[in-house]
């Protein structure tokens, strides 16, 4: 239990996917303008990450690994994740239309989202078991949500600030993201400190 | 088994399983689409210009179906014809469409005004304006780099003698140029407009006179002369309310700076 909690905190705070590993920057900058779409996108990412882990871990463990086909993991994972995202899109369109229209073009973007592929590949490289993999994915997804929601707040402040014209828009957004990334470096050592 | 064949088989079978699941899901989770969507969308020109106030032609078509308050006469490029067709599909009144066109409120040609410096950076109006508020002596006029021309879907705008010109025959009234102009000097007026003001300078008379030969100096003569009260001078520049203008041209004849034109 303690080990799982350590994994959760590590992937959520210390090795935050967006701010420490610099994955999923595209959607991080693209969708963080409005709080509700940032939240919706994060929920979709968490959902897809968990589903992707649940689908890819057994495929690796029971199909690829025993036959020595571990080198196929990237292509197989991409295939599975792409199909999954398509499925999620159809699911949302049918059952949660408001979320579907809020996410708009960003939902298909999760297909090629490096964070989703990153987390499933990382689960394999770190030789996690199934439960550990799921916890790691949940932590990564929660970390993404944390970064998105926090950054959404930062952005709304930045947008209202009086700014030299040449800094407006993307330049100041990137600067703010880098400062936030630096602040997340403060979490390093947290897990070793807590769980020794 | 040969490892190459095994690898191909594994990837192919995983792909097949995913494909079957998706195919099944698309059947189970299909969302019924309003069958009128296709015909309504057909009536729209597909320029995706946004003049109707929606994100694109698809969004406007969807809004027409969903919300009876949305009138079919909002498509400017499609004009009355599109409105009539949509009204026929939906079975509602079409309403009038006023064909609009873009008009550049500046006559600061190379003969009338001068440049303060040569700008060697990126040749867009936006970039020029960001650098010390533009390189013209007049801070309000056309920057002449053609940001408007580059967004125009109909190639209706060309840069002549340092300022933008709109070809009224080609202009579809989408207002993209008006949004692109960093100095906001492109106004949308009805195509039937007979008299226009060709200056946006908000400086006081003497200053305006110094920076450009064709500037409005806010002398109020046109406002006094206008028989229908269509002209108001605000911030030392005249503007015409096209809905009141009768097109008599008294203002244009009386303008000492010839910055009001009768077409």
Describe the protein:
The complex is a heterodimer of chains A (196) and B (263). Chain A has 196 residues and is mostly helical. In chain A, 76% of the residues lie in helices and 0% in strands. Chain A has one domain (2-189). Chain A has 10 helices and no strands. Chain B contains 10 helices and 8 strands. Chain B has helices spanning 3-28, 37-43, 57-66, 79-90, 125-130, 147-151, 176-180, 205-211, 221-225, 250-254, and strands spanning 100-104, 157-160, 163-166, 186-190, 195-197, 231-234, 237-240, 260-262. The model of chain B has no long low-confidence stretch (mean pLDDT 85). Chains A and B meet through helix 3 and helix 4 of A and helix 1 of B.
Give the SSE layout.
The complex is a heterodimer of chains A (196) and B (263).
Chain A: H1 2-14, H2 25-31, H3 35-64, H4 73-95, H5 97-103, H6 106-109, H7 114-125, H8 130-160, H9 170-184, H10 190-195
Helix pairs in contact in A: 1-8, 3-4, 3-7, 3-8, 4-5, 4-7, 7-8, 8-9
Chain B: H1 3-28, H2 37-43, H3 57-66, H4 79-90, E1 100-104, H5 125-130, H6 147-151, E2 157-160, E3 163-166, H7 176-180, E4 186-190, E5 195-197, H8 205-211, H9 221-225, E6 231-234, E7 237-240, H10 250-254, E8 260-262
Antiparallel strand pairs in B: 1-4, 2-3, 5-8, 6-7
